[in-house]
Amino acid sequence: MRNKTLAMLILAICSHPVDAEAFTIKQNSCYQVSGFCAVTCDSGMVVTGGGCFTNSEKVGFSANFPSGTNQWACRPAAKVRWVEAYAICQ
Question: Which of 18, 49, 67, 80 could form a cystine bridge with 88, CB 3.0-4.6 A?
């Protein structure tokens, strides 16, 4: 009985709708990148996640993490032509 109650509680929590206005996604395009590319949340918001993208198949990222409370930082492992930095802000 306890497992059934726990499963129903987890299902209720996981299926609870998320407010569409609770977060925004910000992005920044950086060109000819050999250092950091960062994206910053709007004033009063904090970064809760993010990511990095480049169209280069041969270059990964040496940095892909939050930089402070309102910014996401990306740093390619080598110079690339283009990087997109994304931040999920709440």
Answer: 49
DSSP bridge pairs for 65: 73
Distance CA 27, CA 65 (A): 14
Which of 21, 16, 61 lies closest to 86, judged by CA? 61
Q: Does position 4 have pLDDT exceeding 50, yes or no? A: no
**What does the angle CA 32 – CA 57 – CA 72 come to, to the nearest 5 degrees?**
55
Tell whether the model's pLDDT for residue 6 goes beyond 90.
no
The CB density around residue 40, as the number of other CB atoms within 10 Å, is 17
Tokens of residue 58, six digits: 């041969």
Give burial (CB, 10 Å; 0-12/13-18/19+) of 52: buried
